[in-house]
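Section 5.1 Outputs to date
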Amino acid sequence: MSAQIVSFLIQASYFAAAVLLIMGIKRMSSPVTARSGIQWAGVGVLLAVVATFFHDNFAWSNIVLMILAIGLSTAVAWYSGRKVAMTAMPQMVALYNGMGGGSAAAIGAISLLGFAAVVAAPKFVPASPHLSLSVVILAVVGALIGSISFTGSLIAFAKLQGWMDKTFRFSGQQAVNGLCFLSAAALGAYVVYGITVAHHIDVVFIVLFFAAALLFGILMTLPIGGADMPVVISLYNAFTGLAVGFEGFVQQNVALIIAGTVVGAAGTLLTRLMAKAMNRSISNVLFSNFGSAGGPAAEITGSMKPIEADDAASLLYLAEKIIIVPGYGMAVAQAQHKIWELSQQLIKRDKSVKFAIHPVAGRMPGHMNVLLAEAGVPYDLIADMDDINPEFPNCDVAIVIGANDVVNPAAKTDKSSPIYGMPILDVAKAKQVIVIKRGKGTGFAGIENALFYQDNTRMLYADGQEAANKLIAGLKAMDGGGGH
């Protein structure tokens, strides 16, 4: 087969991979088509990987290591993907995203070390197009962003996994972070200068550049509170995509350029949507103290009023319109299946049942939608915040299971609260509210919830599955175990 035909087939494969990836991501935007979207995108990436093996400059001498790496990573991903609990999905996403950023940084490192070796060669030709200013700058910028995404995602993973405090702050932190970033930027600029102008660069400066970039990713993520994790995860996803795209230009690899650009754009749009859902800018997410437990929130008067499961079942039995608000506590209890079973019992009794989803509920974008889809909840029963909020005043009973910060009315009423200004689900306007909660602790943001102290709120202290079972039993007992 001629080289021209091989080249044409490679480019055609990349084009097909790009189409599959873009269509796959588009299909992921709807729960109805998300599964097939993942499959389409996966086939596209596989096609691009296979096509890469047929490049003329492909390093066949490393083929054994490549196959070993692909086989090992595929086995690990397959096993972890099947075994990881849905409660751990956010940290798994953060970890995998960090691996993508780390891979982009590794490509950048290999490129920069290769450039340093080329300019140090005795027969180096300064006019070499492979060492143009734009190529070297892209290599440095991609390495910088990839390194930040790598270590930042690892810190996010550690926080979500509970291995470290949700926030970590110290005096002068902003100044230290700024100095670290400026150091990384200055070292990166010096690397560019050394390669493209001076035609000599000591490898030590490349190492220092990566050390500063990796450190900045850690420092930037340490102070970010737990309530901001959905935004942070989507932001680092965008970083990873941009880094891959930049390194694709350096390597002249169309697949990396397209995949990185698409993922970067999707991550950026998602990050903006998440920030908008919290009524905050990206800079405010990264550099404010939102979500810290130390905010000077106003004192909440009154007390939490407990309710027994049988009495809660009576409220549901008499209600006509019921709205269920799931949160991370439902994921922890793995109660989504039981909650859907409870919903089915209510629907059998001619109740109107809907699920209300806040854009940043859980620990990653779309977390609650994934859990409900896993349980088999029909998509037409799941409503977004903007659509469901007008319905709360006419809701007879709102059930909050494991949600906290996204239903806290202090976000609208208490200007001193750290979450003031964040759009919330208007659960407080329902006629009756039942909060299913294991204890009296605060949410992931560490903020006391005024909803729990309202006169129309009752606290059902129980694990999510246990509470759902008791409510189902209570409903059946009221009509002799039947339903209509």
